[in-house]
Specification:
four-stranded antiparallel sheet; Potassium Channel Kv1.1, Chain A; Alpha-Beta Plaits; KCD17 protein; cullin family protein binding; T1-type_BTB; BTB/POZ_dom; SKP1/BTB/POZ_sf
Length: about 210
Amino acid sequence: QGAVGLRCTWDIPPPASTQGKWVRLNVGGTVFLTTRQTLCREQKSFLCRLCQGEELQSDRDETGAYLIDRDPTYFGPILNFLRHGKLVLDKDMAEEGVLEEAEFYNIGPLIRIIKDRLEEKDYTVTQVPPKHVYRVLQCQEEELTQMVSTMSDGWRFEQLVNIGSSYNYGNEDQTEFLCVVSKELYNSPNGLSSEPSHKAKVRSALLWL
């Protein structure tokens, strides 16, 4: 529970000369023990080049473990992926962190899997139905044209209600209207919705549906 996984099938077997030889890695102060066979699952990776003796200028600690100055928190999923070709993450582990390490170690199959998962998440967020927000704007007849012409930021005219004359100047009545406008708000990745300001004067409450 709380873990998710995707499997990768390795296309190229590790070199026979690397099988059965154990390697110690000191990643950010945490020691990992594995085999050269595991580290060479992805032959273009930093880890494969390291254990094959290429000149990568990596120091060793007092036990002979290769010193790697990276976050050990995300190295566990990296190593397990090389062991069995499956991405397994704790529910609280950020995929972006594992992706950062996969890119550092140059593990191509794992990079592709995580990027696909992140793209799928982004697509799911965009598919959330939008919320409809309605505003009731009260204005005088002489303000109506200006108010409608200045609507922006995605607001759409819905209905106009004549509420009659509330007062007059001299012999001219000033007719007032209620103008109903609407807008769609989409959820952002952090669960919040943004609503730009509107130029018209709002005298009634904001109604959420």
